[in-house]
Design brief:
Layout: E1 7-10, H1 19-38, E2 47-50, H2 53-56, H3 90-108, H4 112-119
Parallel strand pairs: 1-2
């Protein structure tokens, strides 16, 4: 007996649209990738979304406030990969965070990260 697989999606920390809408978008994006990159016609797959925004937020994100709706790729053929795709490094992602920490430290004189490290003991590690 062959056992089927399931694709599991786990969303990030920010508030999200309602689970049914978010699930629909993820499934559409995955199906688009399988069609464009693997040549599958109307791919069928099992998908489960680990949705936990409702544990962090009182109400789901409204349609007007959503910055990340699914939109089909407008180009033709396979989705961009490798050198065609934009490259984002961890440094690119973390740079605004570090800049924000620097601004807070300069404005307050409090060194958040340094103080956090110095105030905690890690004897139990």
């Amino acid at each position: 007996m062959e056992r089927g697989g399931v694709i599991i999606g786990i969303h990030g920390l920010a508030n999200k649209p309602p689970i049914d809408e978010k699930t629909r978008w993820w499934k559409a994006a995955i199906a688009e990738g399988l069609t464009r990159n693997e040549g599958l016609i109307a791919p069928e797959f099992l998908f489960e979304l680990v949705y936990w925004a409702d544990l962090r937020y009182d109400t789901p994100l409204s349609v007007d406030d959503n910055r990340e709706p699914y939109r089909p790729y407008e180009g033709a053929g396979p989705l961009p990969t490798g050198e065609e795709a934009p490259t984002t490094t961890a440094k690119d992602v973390l740079a605004p965070l570090y800049a924000g920490i620097d601004r807070v430290e300069e404005a307050t004189g409090v060194t958040l990260v340094d103080d956090l490290i110095l105030e905690h003991r890690f004897d139990d590690l």
